[in-house]
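Lab notebook page, bench 4
Experiment: in silico fold of construct C2
Operator: M.H.
Input chain length: 190 residues
Purpose: comparison with the prior construct
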Amino acid sequence: DFAQEVLRRITDLPISFEVFSDDFGTMEKEAREINSWGKNVFVKIPITNTKGESSSKLIERLSSDGINLNITAILTTEQVKKVVQNISDNSDTIISVFAGRIADTGRNPIPIMQECLSIIKNNSNAELLWASSRELLNIFHAEECGCDIITVTNDLLKKLKLVGKDLSELSLDTVKMFYNDAVSIGYKIL
């Protein structure tokens, strides 16, 4: 089982596993099962189900029972406010705001993430997660905002070697890449 293998390998860091169901009754059963897998487990609960019904009551029950949660698919400050109203001091909560998806709509996610941080700042059991990163610059954005956690793909991590690279050198590398691509496919104009 994938989850059990991950938990065998990673014992000292928080790991989130998401429920799969859409109805809150089954979602709660899945959450309690997932919670039983280990002390470092956070149960991912979506902010709503597919009908747009709020998960607030479920969040409140699970949090009150000491289940560590990762509330996911959040895109608005209003959703963050609802989460904060429903979490208990009995558990830790990761609040996953999809900053990348916010940016996909043409909105700057930084002010929204800063407002989210101000909403949760008085809750010592809550951490803000910058989710759905799209580019390397998002790592710096998340840090600038004061986010506690950021999710980053392996492809973005590979770009860390570019941080601070001389732009003239990067320009030359880009020209070489274009040239090598054209040569490798045998493309000729004349």
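Observations: The mean pLDDT is 97. The first strand starts at residue 15 and ends at 18.
Next step: discuss at group meeting.
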